[in-house]
Amino acid sequence: MMRRLKPLNDFVFKKLFGENKDKDILIGFLNAIIQTDVEDLYIVEETLVKTK
Known about the structure:
- With 52 residues, this protein is mainly α.
- It is 38% helix and 0% strand.
- The radius of gyration is 13 Å and the shape is globular.
- 0% of the residues are buried.
- Pfam families: PDDEXK_2.
């Protein structure tokens, strides 16, 4: 059985939308959700630290 990762999880969201090389995906997501015209953005990249 395959388990799916939940996109509401911070780690999964960061992997999907948190890098400047994938900012087009984030721009499309924001435009669809907030119904505005985001043309460009800059993502401040940081390292996630796994805690126990």
